[in-house]
Design brief:
By secondary structure, the chain is an alpha+beta fold. The protein has three domains: 85 residues, Thrombin, subunit H; 97 residues, Beta Barrel (Thrombin, subunit H), CATH 2.40.10.10; 97 residues, PDZ domain (Pdz3 Domain, Roll). Helix content is 24%, strand content 33%. A hairpin with a 2-residue loop joins strand 18 and strand 19. About 3% of the residues have low confidence.
């Protein structure tokens, strides 16, 4: 009896081991999908998905790739995106073939080519640039089959937390959509021209090299900003991107189309570095010197007297608004505009006074 049981156990054990060893081979034989698998049905797209798809399909034809050629490049190289080039994004502004992009996308270029979502490449010429706002306008040489301009929204009523969409050409890849939210408002961003753009929009919608000059949109597909920069140690998206507010764009672009440049309102002063003012415990804009013949000099503003060791005038408010830093003053100068007067509150030694200064275009000679 025991021998019989032992023999049966051995047989069962051998069968189990054979099944265990052979299972993968049996699985491949019995269950391999050697024909296309059936498509599983799914429910309708979510409402938010349909809205995003609709937004992209409606707006993306008006978003273009902007390729600028360095001086010395041949025209054929530009059209074929070869040679010494720099690439970014832009979008159709009007029916006359004007395209808006960043100044740094076309800076230093001789000519520009525009690639549409359809793949068509059209040459373009630079109409005007505004380095102080990092904006530029180029005009297409052909307006055949021109997509509709993107609807313009407002940046004055934006709220932190609302959805934002960016369309662009990161790393030269065509027509990429990224989504996120407006992370912050009223940021300040220095430009290559030595000034600051105020009221910048911060977003966590992915922005990478090549997105520069592309549109930032709200959930209605309206333009609310122009993407311009990122903060990232690696040079790629780190969740902090910036866009020029559309209210600024809507003011600057028409000037570029009409005149090729944007007046730079100023009073003709050289201001002290903000770090110096902070170290001295000063809240305001310290006048280092008033340029000879400038509106500031005419109004009697004084700079630092190095012989006597006396501090210059400190501008504490402009147009009734506090000027804690230079960007505050610039913002008010731009709000008033060239040719008009601005009221400045000035602290000199231990007393305060008010002066009226006429603004001039300080960028005309630059």
């Amino acid at each position: 009896m025991s021998m019989r049981f032992f023999q049966v156990a051995i047989v069962v054990l051998i069968v189990l081991l054979a099944a265990l060893v052979g299972q993968p081979y049996l699985d491949r034989l019995l269950f391999s999908a050697t024909t296309p698998r059936p498509v599983a049905a799914r429910s309708d797209l979510a409402e938010s998905e349909r809205a995003t798809i609709s937004l992209f399909e409606r707006v993306s034809p008006s978003v273009v790739q902007v390729v600028g050629a360095a001086p010395g490049a041949r025209s054929m190289e530009i059209e074929n995106e070869g040679g010494r080039e720099q690439s970014g994004t832009g979008f159709v502004w009007d029916g006359a073939g004007h395209v808006v992009t960043n100044n740094h996308v076309v800076a230093g270029t001789r000519d520009v080519a525009i690639r549409f979502a359809s793949g068509e490449v059209v040459g373009a010429t630079i109409v005007g640039t505004a380095p102080n706002y990092d904006l530029a306008v180029v005009r297409l040489r052909s307006t055949r089959n021109l997509p509709s301009p993107i609807a313009v929204g407002s940046s004055a009523d934006l709220k932190v937390g609302q959805t934002a969409f960016a369309i662009g050409n990161p790393f030269g890849l065509d027509q990429s959509l990224t989504t996120g939210v407006i992370s912050a408002l009223k940021r300040r961003l220095p430009t290559s021209a030595g000034r600051e753009i105020g009221n910048m929009i911060q977003t966590d919608a992915a922005v990478n090299p090549g997105n520069s000059g592309g549109p930032l949109l709200d959930s209605a597909g309206r333009l609310i900003g122009v993407t311009t920069a990122i903060i990232s140690p690696s040079g790629s998206n780190a969740g902090i991107g910036f866009a020029i507010p559309v209210d600024t764009v809507n003011r600057v672009v028409p000037e570029l189309i009409q005149k090729g440049r944007v007046p730079t309102p100023g009073i003709g002063i050289v201001a002290a570095n903000e770090a110096v003012a902070t170290r001295l415990g000063i809240e305001g804009v310290v006048v280092v010197r008033a340029m000879p013949g400038s509106p500031a000099a005419t109004a009697g503003l004084r700079g630092i007297d190095q012989v006597a060791g006396e501090l210059g005038d400190i501008i504490t408010s402009a147009n009734g608004k506090p000027t804690r830093r230079l960007s505050d003053l610039i913002e008010q100068l731009e709000a008033v505009g060239v040719g008009r007067e601005i009221e400045l509150s000035v602290k000199r030694a231990d007393r305060s006074t008010t002066v009226r200064v006429k603004l001039e275009d300080v960028g005309r000679s630059g």
